[in-house]
Design brief:
- The structure is a single chain.
- The protein has helices spanning 8-30, 53-63, 77-87, 101-113, 141-146; strands at residues 33-37, 44-48, 94-95, 119-120.
- The protein is mainly alpha-helical.
- It has one domain (5-146).
- Helix 1 runs antiparallel to helix 2 (53-63).
- The two termini are 23 Å apart.
Length: 147
């Protein structure tokens, strides 16, 4: 979400890069590999890791899901949420992890007023980012069934 229309293009480019990296990570996990950022070269590389076959199959199913990105202009937040709900027949999951703190209350309030209960926040609780398989979150059965 951005407050200014001029910020939209830059935000869309950043989100596309993140989306591409997520898709690449899901693809690699299916092969028993992990995408990580080499701290010395700052390059994204992959390495083999031990993933049980049943976990690999879960990543196959997740990778089949449609990932949409959308940069929302703050002034159009209510209208954009209405559009998401209409286009998805009310089957949306809202992840507000990347929402700026100053905009989070407004976003949450609008979602609650519309009766939305599927509002999630994801947070890695690590002392520092390692950009390797230590950050890998194995998909739990309950999460897998809701994705």
């Amino acid at each position: 979400m951005v407050k200014d229309k001029c910020q939209r293009i830059g935000a869309e480019k950043r989100l596309e890069l993140i989306k591409d990296r997520v898709c690449q990570q899901l693809s690699l996990l299916q092969e028993g590999k992990y995408l990580y950022r080499d701290q010395e070269t700052k390059q994204w590389l992959d390495r083999g890791i031990d993933i049980e076959p049943h976990h690999r199959s879960r990543y196959v199913k997740i990778a089949e899901k449609k990932i949409d990105i959308c940069v929302i202009i703050y002034d159009l937040l209510d209208e954009e949420i209405n559009n998401f709900l209409k286009e998805s027949n009310d089957r949306c999951i809202f992840d507000v992890s990347a929402t700026l703190k100053g905009l989070l209350i407004d976003t949450y309030t609008i979602l609650q007023a519309k009766g939305i209960k599927d509002i999630y926040v994801f947070e890695l609780r690590l002392r520092e980012r390692t950009y390797d398989e230590k950050e890998l979150v194995i998909v739990h059965k309950g999460l897998y069934e809701t994705v």
